[in-house]
Batch of 2 targets.
Target 1
Amino acid sequence: MQKKPAPPTEVAAVSKVAKAAQSTPATHLSLPSDSGGEGRVRAVIDAVLPAVDAGRFAIKCVAGDTVKITAHCFTDGHDVVRAMLRWSADAGDGARDWHEVPMKALVNDVWEASFAPPSIGRFVYTVAAWVDPFESWHHEMTRRIEPEDIRIASQVGAMDIIAAAARAQVADRDTLLRWAKALQTAALDADHNANALKALALDETLGELAGRYPDRRFETHYVAELPLFADRKRARFSSWYELFPRSASPEPGRHGTFKDVEARLPAIAEVGFDVLYFPPIHPIGRTQRKGKNNALVAGKDDVGSPWAIGAAEGGHKSILAELGTPDEFRQLVQKAAGLGMDIALDIAFQCAPDHPYVQSHPAWFRWRPDGTVQYAENPPKKYQDIYPFNFESDDWRAMWAELKSVFDHWIGEGVKIFRVDNPHTKAFPFWEWAIGEVKKEHPEVLFLAEAFTRPKVMHRLAKLGFSQSYTYFTWRNSKQELTEYFTELSTGPGSDYFRPNVWPNTPDILHEQLQGGEASLYMMRLVLAATLSANYGIYGPAYELRDHLPRNSGSEEYLDSEKYQLRTWNHDDAQSLAPFIARVNRIRHDNPALQADRSLRFLPVENDQLIAYAKESEDGSNVIVTVVNLDRYNVQSGWIGLDAASIGVEPGESFQMHDLLSNQRFIWQGEFHFVQLDPHAVPAHIFVVRRRSRTERDFDYFL
Amino acid sequence: MQKKPAPPTEVAAVSKVAKAAQSTPATHLSLPSDSGGEGRVRAVIDAVLPAVDAGRFAIKCVAGDTVKITAHCFTDGHDVVRAMLRWSADAGDGARDWHEVPMKALVNDVWEASFAPPSIGRFVYTVAAWVDPFESWHHEMTRRIEPEDIRIASQVGAMDIIAAAARAQVADRDTLLRWAKALQTAALDADHNANALKALALDETLGELAGRYPDRRFETHYVAELPLFADRKRARFSSWYELFPRSASPEPGRHGTFKDVEARLPAIAEVGFDVLYFPPIHPIGRTQRKGKNNALVAGKDDVGSPWAIGAAEGGHKSILAELGTPDEFRQLVQKAAGLGMDIALDIAFQCAPDHPYVQSHPAWFRWRPDGTVQYAENPPKKYQDIYPFNFESDDWRAMWAELKSVFDHWIGEGVKIFRVDNPHTKAFPFWEWAIGEVKKEHPEVLFLAEAFTRPKVMHRLAKLGFSQSYTYFTWRNSKQELTEYFTELSTGPGSDYFRPNVWPNTPDILHEQLQGGEASLYMMRLVLAATLSANYGIYGPAYELRDHLPRNSGSEEYLDSEKYQLRTWNHDDAQSLAPFIARVNRIRHDNPALQADRSLRFLPVENDQLIAYAKESEDGSNVIVTVVNLDRYNVQSGWIGLDAASIGVEPGESFQMHDLLSNQRFIWQGEFHFVQLDPHAVPAHIFVVRRRSRTERDFDYFL
C-alpha cells in the first residue's frame, strides 16, 4: 500500500499538472446557481413534492392536517445521505422560523416526512440533505470483516465522533469523547479483539447520540421554498345552501328580508348546512332591468336581477333597501355564526349601467365611439343589464384597489366566505393579487370560484388562490362519467390545489335530468354530491321542493326563476326532501371519511346503473362505502367488490355494513357482496363499516 | 342605453369610493413576480412544454431537428389570444437574439409551434402571449347581426386598424388607413348596407395585413426561458464498437498498438460502426496491480487493468508506451475520422496508487489515520488497484479544474466523444460544471454516462449534461420487460433529456443469457439493441466471435477477461457474426426510422416469444417494423396486429413488407399478419413498409 507522501493539511507544491490546470482559473469556477458556490455540496435533491408549477403557486391544506412531503434524494457513490424536511410560517416578509423533521428513506431514493401546519395562513416547506460522514462510516463498519480494516475504520470513526462532540450539547460531549477515546485506544492495541472493537464501534445508543450532532457543513438546499396555504377546516369540508333572501318571505308577494332569513336560520341549521350563500344583496340597476323570465323589458313591479349591481343609491358595498339595513345584515351574520354557519356573499364584479362607478370612474369601462359600453356577454347568454369592467383600463391600479376594498368592506361586516361570480371573465392577475392581499390580513376568508369553463382556466383560478371551485358535476351523470371525473379530481395533479365544490343544481343550471322531477332522482344526485365530495351545495328551496320546470324545452334555466322575480316557497310541504338531506348531512358531520376527498376509490360492480365507492378517514378508523342506484325508475342489484384487507379486515372475517340512511345492518364476508336498491324507497346506501378487529366504537356507533 | 358621462381620457374626480380605495395605496400594489408590475397583462401562459424540472435543466435535441413546443395559453372572458414561440441561441452571456414563430391553437387551450435549432450549441425558448384587440374585434364582428351593432363595431374596429397602421411598415400604412377610413365613413352613413359594411370589416386580405402589426403592449412573458442543447446528429444516432487496443495485435502474445487498430479500421467501418471506443489508454499502475482474472497479485508479465490509471511515467493525459506515441494516436484519430468514425475515450476519474496526482496533490485523496487511502469499491466489487478522488477535498477547486483539463487535453488530440466511467461515484455538481464548460467551447463533444445504478441517479446524470446514458437493456430479456422498459424510455419524462445507448454486452457484463453462446441468441440481442434504440453498441470482438464463458458459474465476468490480460482474436472465423452485424448496421444507416427513438410503438402479437414494434421517420415516409423471436431454440409464429391506417395505408389496400435482413418480400393486407421465425436461420425480420400510396421510392428501394 502506497504511503501518504505529506500530511493532508500541507499545501502541495504547484506541479506540472496543477500548472496546466491554471488555464482554467480554479477560483473562477462558474457553479450552478443552486450550489451556493460550494462544490462539496454532494447530496442531490432532485425533486420535492407536492409542488404546483415548481412552487410558483401554493398547495392547499387545512391547519392541523398532516401534509406528507416526499423528496428524491441521493448522492454519488455509497455514502449515506440524511434528509430533513424544513417548514416555516411565511408572514410575507421573507423571515423564516424553520422547523425540521427528519425524512425517512423509502424505496428508490424517495424520502418522506410529514408536518401539520399548526395554524391557518401561509407556510413554506423545503428540504435539506447532506452526505453524513458519521452515518457513512457506521454503514461501512457494518460491512467490515478483516481485523485490520476494523482497526483502521475505528480510528477514522473516532475522528468523526470527536467532531460530533465539538458540535454537541455540553451534557453529551464527554460521553462522545470517551467513546472516541475508547475506540482509538482499542484500535491501536493489536491485542484487542477485532470483533469486540467492531461491537464498540456499532454501539447503538452511542451511535444514536452521535447522530444527533451531524456534520451539515456541505448541506444541499433544495432550489425552492415551496408555498403552502393552510385554510380553516371549512375549506375542505362544507355544506352550502343557496337562497334568495328576497324570496324568504312567507307571505306571497311581499319582498323577503334579512329578518325573514333570520327566522329560517334554525331550520337551515337543522338540515345541517354550514354555509348559507346569498346572491348579490346590493341595489339593483334600473336601466335595462330584466323582467320575469329574463324578459328584455321589465314591468314596473319587476325586481330585476340581483347580478345587475348598482343604482343611484349605491353599489357593491350597499344593501338593497328592501332587504334590510346594514345593522340587520350584521345581526343575521351573527345569528348564523351562533348556529355554526357562515354567511357567504356573492361577489360579482360588474355594474348595472346606473352603478355609481359608471359616473365616478368612467375610465374603468370600455367606451365605444358612440358613447356606449358594450354590455356583458357569456355566449350564448347576454346580460343587457350589465357593464363589464375594463381590465385594460389605464386606471387599473385604482380599480383593483377599489374592487379589493369590496371584500374588505364585507369582511368588516362579518362575512368570511365569498362566492365569486364568473372570475374567469376578470383579469387573472387581479385575482392572485386581491386574494393574496385579503388572505394576508384575513387568512380565515375563503373564496369559491364560480367558473364553469374550460379545465385549464378553472385550474388556473384555483392556483391563483381560490379556496374552492365549482365543477362539472352537474353534467356528469353516468357511472363512467362520474368515475372518471372524480378519479381525476381526487388523484390528478389538481388534488394539491383544486378543491371541488359540487352542486346538483344552481339558479343557472337546472340540468335536463333534474327536469324529470322524481324524488328518487333528487335523492340520488344529492347523495352523490354529498358523498363524492366533501364540499357540496344545493340551490334551495328549489332543490328540496323539487322545482323542476325549465323556462322552455331544451333550456337549463328555471321557469319563473328567482333570478328575475320573487318566489314564495312552502317549507312545510310533506314531500320536501329536507328531512332526507338532514340525514345525509348528519352522516357527513359524523363521519370524517366524508370530510376529505383524497381517499376516494371506486369499487367494482358489474352493473352500469350501480355506482359504489369507498372513502376513509386519514387514520383509517372510519370507512364509508356509498352505493347509489343511478336508475331513477328500476330496482337495480349487483355484486360489489370490496376486498376485506383493503378496509383492515382479516381475510375470512366478517364485518358489519351499517346503512346510515336506512339504519339497516348487513353482515358481509369475503370479496363480493350483494346489493339491491329500490329508487322508490331510497336509491342509496351510505354504509359505515364496523369491524370486530377495530375499536369498540365501531360496534357502539348508532345514528 | 346609458350615455357615457365623460370622455374616457378625462380623469374622474376622486369620489367617495375612490377615497375608500386609497386605504390600499394604488401605487403600491404588490404584483406577482412574473407580471412585470403591469396589471393589464391579461394573457395567461400556464405551462410551456417540454421542460425539465421547470427549466432547471436543458432538453436535448439535434441541430436541424424539429422541436415541437406546446404552451397552455388563454385569457379571461372571450377575447382572442395570440401566442408566439420565441427562441434564441444562448452564448451564456445573457444576450438574446429572439426568433419568433406564431403558435397555433389546438384544442383545450393548448398551443403549438416548432422550431429547428440551426446549429449545435445552447438555446433557450419561451412563449409570449397577448390579448389581441384586433383579433378580438374581428371574432366579435363575425357574430354581429344587428345593423346597429355592426355600425358601432365597425367604428371600434377602425380605431384598432388606425392603431395597427401606426405600427405598420410604411408600405402598408396607407392601405390600413384607407380601410379604417372606409369603415368609419360607411359606419356613420345610415344608408350604407350593414351586410356590406360587415363584409368590408371582415375583408380577409386586409385583416391579414392588420394582423401583422399586433398591439403587444400588454404582452405576457412566460416565467422562464427554458434551456435546450442541440447536439450533432451522432448524439441521437450512433453505433458503438468497443475494443481493447492492446488486444488488437494479430500475433498472440504481442501487446497490441494503435498501429494494429489502425489496420483494423477499414474492417470496423465496413461493419458499419461509427464510434470506436477504447478503454483507458494511459499508463497502468504497478502498485496493487491486478493479475489475470482479477487476481489480487499480478504476475511479472501481467498487464494490469487499464482502469488502474497512472504510474510514474504519467496519468490521465499520458499514453501507455506499449500502445504507441501521441503522434500515432493522433494519426489513428484522423484515419478514423476519414472513415466517418469517432474515437471515443474512456474517462475514469480515479488513480492507481502510483499515479502522479497521489504525490503532487495528496489533498485530493482521503487519507486515513494510518497514512493509507481506502481503495475504491462498488459493492460487491473491490478495486484494490484504484484510489478514488475525494470530492470533499478542501482543494476541490484545483481538482475540478485539473479533471476538466483532462477532457481539454484529449479534445486537443482530436477526441470528441468521452465514455465516462462510473460518473455516479463522483460528485454530481462537478459533472454539471465540467460538461457545461467543455460544451461552451466545444459543443460538438459528446459524453456517455456509464452508470448502471438506480433510476433517479441515472436520470440526474442525464439532466446534468451527459449526452447519452447506458441502460438496463442488458438485463431486460423477456417481452414484457423489453416492452415496459422501452416504452418508458421513449415516452416517459426522460425522453426529453435521457438518450439511451443500449449494449448487449460490455467488458463488465456477460449476461447469464449470453453465456449460452448460441448464434441465434447473439443475433437476437443485437437486432433488439440496434432497432429498439438509435444508439447502441457492442463490446467486440467478444460479441461477434461469441466469447461466452464466464469466469465462474453465476458470474457476469468474462473468463480470461481483456480487462486483465491480452487476448488475440480470430477475425477470419467463419462463424463470426460480423457480416450479420454489418447488414443490421446498413439497415440502420439507410432507414431514418431507426435513427431516433420517439416514434417507437409496440405491436400486439399473441405469443410471448415474439416481440414486434414499429418506428417511423419524423415525416412518416420511412416505416420499419421489427419482429424478433425471443426463443433461441424453437420456431415461433403468431399474428401481428398492424393497423394499415397507422402506417398511412388505406383500409383494404395491400402493402409490401420487405425484410431487409433476408431480402424476402411479403404482401400484407388488413390488420393481422402471420409471421414465423426460425432461430436456426435468422431470428428476426426487419421490415421496411412499401406502400402503393406513397412515393415511388417505396417500391424502388433495394438493399
Target 2
Amino acid sequence: MKPMGALPPEFADQRGMLTIAGRPAEDWAADAGDTPFFVYDVAIVAARVARFRSAFPGIDLHYAIKANPLPALLAAIAPLVDGLDIASAGELHRAIAVKPAAAISFAGPGKRDDELTVAIGSGVTLNVESEGEAGRAIGIGERLAIRPRLAVRVNPDIELRGSGMRMGGRPSPFGVDAVRAAALVRTIVASGANWRGFHIYAGSQALDAQAIAETQAATIALAARLAEEAAVSPPLVNLGGGFGVPYFAGDKSLAVEDVGDALRSALDARPAVLRDTRFAIELGRWLVADAGVYLTRIVDRKESGGELFLVVDGGLNHQLAASGNFGTVVRRNYPLALARAVGEEPTETVSVVGPLCTPLDRLGDRIALPAGRVGDLVAIFLAGAYGASASPADFLGHPPAAELLANGY
Amino acid sequence: MKPMGALPPEFADQRGMLTIAGRPAEDWAADAGDTPFFVYDVAIVAARVARFRSAFPGIDLHYAIKANPLPALLAAIAPLVDGLDIASAGELHRAIAVKPAAAISFAGPGKRDDELTVAIGSGVTLNVESEGEAGRAIGIGERLAIRPRLAVRVNPDIELRGSGMRMGGRPSPFGVDAVRAAALVRTIVASGANWRGFHIYAGSQALDAQAIAETQAATIALAARLAEEAAVSPPLVNLGGGFGVPYFAGDKSLAVEDVGDALRSALDARPAVLRDTRFAIELGRWLVADAGVYLTRIVDRKESGGELFLVVDGGLNHQLAASGNFGTVVRRNYPLALARAVGEEPTETVSVVGPLCTPLDRLGDRIALPAGRVGDLVAIFLAGAYGASASPADFLGHPPAAELLANGY
C-alpha cells in the first residue's frame, strides 16, 4: 500500500456520501449529465481570499489565471481580487471581459509582436522579460501612439528554498537579470512609457512559511536596491507567489499567517524609496486548487496478478498532474476517495486507473479505499488548479470533461 | 553542452535551409499562415510502410491511431495498412470514416457501455480487457441483436525487455491475465459471439531487435498454448507493436529486418493450432514519428547568468513529450535544428524555451546550434507521433498549432 495526500479541510471531516457545496456528489453528476466532470466551489476560493485578506492587510491580491481560466470561475473570482495576471493573448481576452485593463498584467518570456500590440492597445501592463521585448513594446507604443504600461520582470539573484519549481537564482528565460534591471528601468522611463514597477518571481509551490518570508524580504531589498540604482520609485512591486498546496502524504499546509506577519515586519522596515509603493502577491494554485473536485465513474473492477484495479472513465486526459506526469520526478498519490464512502474505513488496496490505453494513466497507485463497485463515483481532490486546462484533452479522443461551478453568481 | 538525438534519415543529410517534402521550411510557414505548426510528410510514412512490408511479408500491419489521429493523415494512411487500432469512441468515429469496420479493433481498459454499444453497432472488433467487459459486450450484443466481434486481450506473463513502456509480465489494467484467458475464450465462443482471436501487447518504444523478436516468439507460444487450452484456433493474433524510435543521443534505430527474419522463423515453426491464423503487428509511433516536424519561430534571444536563451513561440502546449514532461523520468533533448542552417556547424550553446510562463517549457537544453536570430524558424523533429494530440493545447491560452500534410492525397 502507498500513502496518499490528505483531503482539503472542507472535505476532510465528511463521512458517507461526499458533498460539494452541500450537495451530494451524485446530484452534481446528474447536473453534469455524464462523467467525468469537475466541480469548482467558489465558496472555497472566497474562503482562501478571506484568509489572505486577514493575513496580508494592505497587500494587493492578484489571481494568476493560468491556474484555472474557466470563464465562469474567472467571473466569480475577479471581484474578489485586485488584479489578474495573464500569460498569453488568449488569457488577455478572458481577463479583460471581467476586469479593467489597468488591473491586468501580462508576463511570459515569448510575447510576440501581435500579443504586445493587443496588450498595449487594450491598456494592460506588460511585465517585460528582456531588453529586446522592452524595445519592441516601446516601438509598438509609438506606432499606436499609446503610452505603454511597462513593468520590469526581474530574474532575482535569490531563489525560493523548498519550492516545487524554482524560478530565481539561476540563468533563466524569465525576466532580466537583476544586474541589468536598473538600466532597463532607465531606458523605459526615458522612452516616455508609463513605468509600473517590478515583477519578481522566485519560485512556486512552497509549503515552508519561513522560506517564503525570507524570499519576500530579499525581494523587497532587491526592489529597493534596483529602485535606488534607477533613481525612481516603483508604483508597484509584484512579490510573486509561491504559496504551495499539500498534495501528498506528509505535506503540511502553508502557514500563510506567518508569512503575513513576516511581510508586515519587512514592509514596516522598508527603505524610503519604496515608501509609496504598493505591493502585490500573485497566487494561482493556492486560491483555486482546494476548490476543485474531479469526479469519475468506475467502469470496471478487475484483478490481475493478485492486484486489484478500479478502471474509471476519467484519466490523465483531464488530470495530467494527478497521474504524476507533469513536472514531477517521482509519482505520488493525490488525495482521492470513493464518493459514496468518504471518510469510511478502507477495506482493500486498489489502483485507480483511467481509460487511456497507456500505463501512464494511473490516478491512484495501490491506495487503501472502501470497496468500490462498478458505477461508483471516485473523487480526486485538489483538482481546481492545473487540471482541465493543463491536461492533454484530445489524447485518445475522449470527450472533454464538463466543468461546473458551485456557489457561483 | 548537452547532446541531442539524431535527425531522422530523411533530414540528416540536409544542409542550409531545411526542406520538408522538397519545399523550404519558410514556404511551409507561409502555407500555415502563422507559427508554430506541424508538417507531416506522408511519403515518409509510406516509406516506413514499405520497409515493414518488405521485412514482414504476409503479416498484417495495423496503425494505432492514438499516435496521430489527424483526419487528413489518417485518410492518407488508411489505404496503406490492413487495419486501424482505436482506443475510444472518438477514435472510432475517425477510423470508420476511412476504413471498413471489420478492419478496425478497439482496445482500452475502461470501455463504457456507450462505447461498447457504438462499437458493436458499427461492427468493430472489441479487444476485451476483462471478464466483466466481455460480459457487458455480450449483453449489449444480445440487446442489439448483433453478434459482437470479440477478441481477448491477454496480459502476457512475459515482458518486452528494454521497452520504454512495459505492459506485460506484471499486474496490469490491460487485458486478462494469461492464466484466465482460455476460460474467457470459451465463455465468448459459448455465448455465440464472433471470436476474433488474441491481442497481446507486451510493451512499446523498444529499440532492441533481439528483445522484440524474443517477445514475439513468446507471444506466439502463448497464443498457441491458450488456443490449445481453449480448444479453438484464433482467426487473428495481434502481436502488439513495440517498435521504438531513436529520440535521444546514443539511441540506435531499430533493425526491423532482423525482427522480421526472426518472426518468419518463429511462424514457420508454429504449432498446428495456429496454422490458419493471421498475424498482425500494431504500430503507431514507428510509422509516423519521423514524418512530423514542428516548426516554431524565435521571438527573443536573451542572455541570463552567462547562458543564452532562444525563446520561441511554440512549446509544451503542442509538444509536451519534447519538453520531457510526458512519461519520462530524465529530461533529454529531442533532435532539433535551426531551420535556415540545418546541418551547419554549431557556433554557440543555447537553450530553446517556449513561451509558456513555466520552467517546464524547455524544448532544447543547452544544445549546440548555429547562431539563431529573432525571426528564425526552429525545427523539432520526431514530432509526428504523440505531439499535437498528446499535449495540453489549452494550457496558458495560446492558439492551437496548424497541422499540414505533405504528399497527401
